[in-house]
Amino acid sequence: MKKILLIGIITFFSTNLSAQTETNIDSVKIRKIYTEALTNGRSYQWLNYLTKKVGHRLAGSEGDKNAVAWAKVELEKLGLTKVWLQPVTVPHWVRGEKEEAHIESEFGKFNIDIRALGGSIATPKGGLLAEVVEVKSLKEVEELGDKVKGKIVFYNGAMPADKIETFRAYGAAVGQRVNGASVAGKFGAVGAIVRSMTTKIDNVPHTGTMRYGDIDENQKIPTAAISTSSADMLSKLIEQGDKMKFKFYFKQSCKNLPDTQSFNVIGEIEGLNYPNEIIVVGGHLDSWDLGEGAHDDGSGVVQSMEVLRLFKELKIKPKRTLRVVLFANEEFGLSGGTAYASAAENKKEKHIVALESDSGGFTPRGFGFTCNDKNYSQILKWKQLFEPYNLHIFARGGGGADIGPLKKDDNVLLGLRPDSQRYFDYHHTETDVFEMVNKRELELGAASMASIIYLFDQYGINN
Ligand SMILES: [Zn+2]
Question: Which of 36, 218, 302, 429 suits 199 as a labelling partner, its CA being 20 to 30 A distant?
Fold first, then answer.
């Protein structure tokens, strides 16, 4: 009896001790990762090149081609096991000449800054002039029905300011931008203009994708975004009613060209012990054609590249195969993410973890995880390792649009969760430029990603 008790005590202490040693080894390793990223990191330098030398890179554009070529060469320099391009068919939309808009009334013309939404058709050559109907939601248009006929529908539903996570506020309002034109077009409206998707009140219009869905060709109407301050001004004019009669004019020459080819840029370090278990880290290489796509998603791209560089530089030989994927065309219908997942399915590859960074290069606050209960309780044990780095969010839910198609019952998808308060100040605008990204914040994000990837690599999942 005494002997059994003694063995019990010894086993208890030794397992506890080994768990403690593991934690110590992990915290030392994570410290090294942060130190390297913050003192000798490459992400900021890469972002500088991608934004200033390559510039914006909408799917199918010259910039997109240059970005693919640049990323491949940079990954090749890292000495990975292999680097390759995966062909992806992408849509090809071009903005055309700079858009024009103004308000026309008996008091004269007042110019408004406007940007076509991605995927929209052009206005007639001479532009479009019509009365405006203001709504706050798609539902309001359905209720108005034929009353919008011949008019420009003005979607003025703001991103709700009371939501703490701005991505939730975006989710609550963005339906107007995506489906506004198709809903208004069905009831005979001639155009749709949308309040920009931001909580900031300023003069900068935000573009973004829109869809016509399956409506008839003759129901398709041109659509564009105006800034939040223009939207507030327009709304005030409408409030004046008969005292202030006016019409809205806009002109755009954008068009949809035939689909073309782009590529996912992929690099990997083959795993030492379990090469068939794949861990992906990525962001999307394409961006909107305004600004430089610095936060969206240049930051995620260079942070993902940095994760593999950190492993190489610190001589961490991964047990599992570590793969960076720079996805093609996220902005215009996710063709990169879809192509990657279907190729993985065809090759019967086993993706155990996928991490995406596509929420801007701001101060990292933690991660959001989409996984089962068992994996989540394993992950929660790692939370304390991130306390010294001020990462507190280990929330359920999240991942990223590009990695979404990789979801399986027993794998883990996760997204880096940076502070989201300023992301929509820049999102899809000409102000999303390199200067708006803070070097330290960007590097802290890359280190956080590398650290959690290190843990997933060490321990795998479903244990
Ligand atoms: Zn993005």
Answer: 302
Q: How far is the CA of 83 from the centre of ligand 1 (A)?
A: 23
Distance CA 193, CA 132 (A): 9
Q: How far is the CA of 427 from the centre of ligand 1 (A)?
A: 8
Which residue type occupies 50?
Answer: L
**Cα-atom radius of gyration of the chain, to the nearest Å?**
25
DSSP state of 107: T
**12 CB neighbour count, 10 Å cutoff:** 10
Helix (H) or strand (E) holding 335: helix 335-346
Tens of pLDDT, residue by residue over 194-229, are 999 999 999 999 999 999 999 999 999 999 999 999
Count of other CB atoms within 10 angstroms of residue 89: 16
* The one-letter amino acid at 389: Y
Sequence letter at residue 140 = E
- β pairing state of 350-356 and 412-418: parallel
* 330 CA distance to ligand 1 middle (Å): 7
The position carrying tokens 């260079």 is 302
DSSP-derived secondary structure letter, 438: -
CA 216 to chain centre: 30
In 50-70, which positions are buried (b, 16+ CB within 10 angstroms) versus exposed (e)? Answer: bbeebbbbbbbbebbbebbeb
**What's the average model confidence in pLDDT over 350-373?**
98
Q: Does pLDDT of 7 surpass 90?
A: no
Q: Are 302 and 446 in contact (CB under 8 A)?
A: yes
Q: What does the alpha-carbon distance between residue 399 and residue 60 come to, in Å, rounded to a whole number?
A: 26
* Element holding 352 (H helix, E strand): strand 350-356
Residues with catalytic annotation? 330
**Nearest by Cα to 51 from 367, 294, 408:** 294
Structure token pair of residue 165: 């996570």
Whole-number Å distance between alpha carbons of 440 and 433: 16
Angle formed at CA 226 by CA 432 and CA 120, multiple of 5 degrees? 85
Residue with tokens 């506004």: 180
Report which residue type is found at 101: A
CB atoms within 10 A of CB 193: 29
Distance from Cα 283 to the centre of ligand 1, integer Å: 8
Residues contacting 235, CB < 8 A, separation 6+:
134, 154, 156
Please give the structure tokens belonging to residue 110. 């007042």
> Quick one: tokens of 238?
């409408």
pTM (two decimals): 0.94
Kind and range of the H or E run holding 226: strand 223-226
**Secondary structure in 3-state letters for 186-198:** HCCCCEEEEECCC
The two tokens of residue 133 are: 């109907």
CA of 401 to the centre of ligand 1 (A): 8
